[in-house]
Amino acid sequence: MRQLIHDAAEGLADALAAQGATDLVADFANPLPLVVIGGLLDVPPGDRRRFSRWVGAMFDPGYPGEVAEAVRHIHQFLLHLVAERRTAPGDDLLSGMIAARDEDDRLSEHELVSLAFMILFAGTENAQHLISSGVLTLIQHPDQLAALRADPSLLPHAVEEILRFAHPNQLAVRRFPTEDIEIGGVRIPAGDTVMLGICSADRDPARHTDPDRFDIRRDDAQHLAFGHGLHYCLGAALARLEIQIGLGTLLRRFSHLELTVPAEELQRRASFRSHALRRLPIRLTPAAA
Length: 289
Hints:
This protein has 289 residues and is mostly helical. It has helices at residues 2-19, 24-29, 31-41, 45-59, 66-87, 93-102, 109-140, 142-150, 155-165, 198-202, 236-253; strands at residues 21-23, 181-183, 186-188, 254-259, 281-286. The strands form 2 sheets. A 3-stranded antiparallel β-sheet has the order 1-5-4. Strands 2-3 form a two-stranded antiparallel ribbon. The relative contact order is 0.15.
């Protein structure tokens, strides 16, 4: 898996080097996780991009009705993919999931399609935004970027701090209490919607010293970016690997990264749940051979 991510990142970096200026979201951050998860499920490259566009429309629709339209596209796409793989199984994760459904009866058909969606969605969406958010955060903190360039061994620490400081998901999946509860002196009736503020927890001054400071050497960079306990993200290790290799490739291949527009002009998704960039226009200077 590490070699797959490395090769994909190097190939994308080659294309960036030929361009000079680019939208890092479209040309690097988005396609890298798609290659990885698409490879795990053996999804054709063209279909990976279509899936990513539909997921983007779910969270940042451009017109009324686009969310429902995107959901229909995704559902039909997954039904077709499952049917196709069922006819011609291969050595991939989706084929294994289908076998668990058809041979071992461990999944219903609905669960199979839902699980395929969750793997494709969760395995691409967060990593895409974390790569672009991570690059922007480093550009906006040149002292930290310089420290990371001077000591690449800090990269794993930098990734954890990016996960804490610049995670795109502001809120966790909504919860519904099954009985009346009280938290922090606030009564929450049974059945009410509860939204958990991940960004608030990760900037909690009772937990983190100077929480609004971005510091890749921070020794208290624990966070809730991947959840906690029973619901801890199963793909956390893969996401960390993608972000580390993606950022490491960019820093090694390019000696200078700079925004081509003022930071205040950067556009983000019109979503209350995620603080994700739509585009990240930057200029890259290839490192000397």
